[in-house]
Design goal:
alpha/beta, Rossmann fold, nine-stranded mixed sheet, two-stranded antiparallel ribbon, globular
């Protein structure tokens, strides 16, 4: 099977996530496609927690790198931020969308788009200083197998405060007053990749995963009965 995977956000979470997904597709599902989406640019101050070979538009730079590293996968890129307009073009039937952005509006935009498709999947990750979560939305044959990301249990996504989708750096958490932890970014990327792997291999059994790296704890929730 040839998967089409869209990675939204190429920051501290998105880069390790995209790298591992690309490596997995290259080895096990050649001919698959990956679309990298981010309107930000790599700058020198990003090197502390982001891996890149040159400065420039994040999506384009990583797509060029990945083409050399993973030749059996087809890469394309959008040097744009996610928006209600471009999501209609970007996300199509059967796509798997991996979201490494923290904006609630962005999550709702993708959730709403997939809710109008016959088939699609969204895996969304975010973290605070030492904790994080991964949310899953699955749709097949025009029916929701799980709750959409925008649901009554997540009112912050269902009714988000007005936000500018273009004010972020493509990272899972970019809160001005909250410093980031490399360890938590890596953990979020790892849990998102694990969730993606479980989905592709038919073993996914939860809708949301919570983790705390200090407490060494992880738990999952299955609200709607994911298959």
């Amino acid at each position: 099977m040839e998967y089409r995977v869209i990675v939204v956000g190429l920051g501290g979470v998105g880069i390790p996530l995209a790298t591992n997904v690309a490596r997995f597709l290259n080895a096990d599902y050649p001919g698959g496609r990956m679309i990298l989406v981010d309107g930000d640019r790599f700058e020198e101050h990003n090197r502390q927690r982001q891996d890149f070979t040159r400065l420039g538009p994040k999506a384009q730079v990583k797509a060029e790198e990945f083409r050399r590293m993973f030749p059996r996968v087809i890469f394309s890129y959008w040097n744009e931020y996610l928006s209600p307009d471009n999501v209609q073009i970007l996300v199509g039937e059967g796509d798997i969308v991996l979201m490494a952005i923290d904006k609630y509006v962005g999550r709702k935009v993708v959730s709403d788009r997939v809710s109008h498709l016959d088939r699609g999947a969204v895996i969304c990750g975010a973290n605070d200083l030492t904790t994080g979560d991964v949310m899953v939305y699955l749709r097949q044959n025009g029916q929701d197998l799980t709750f959409p990301l925008a649901n009554e249990m997540h009112p912050e996504i269902l009714n988000p405060e007005p936000e500018d989708l273009e004010v972020h750096d493509g990272c899972a958490v970019q809160v001005v007053h909250s410093p980031q932890q490399l360890a938590t970014n890596v953990a979020t990327a790892s849990h998102m990749f694990n969730t993606f792997w479980l989905l592709v291999t038919g073993q996914l059994h939860y809708e949301e995963l919570f983790f705390d790296i200090v407490a060494g704890e992880m738990r999952v929730e299955n609200y709607h009965g994911a298959e």
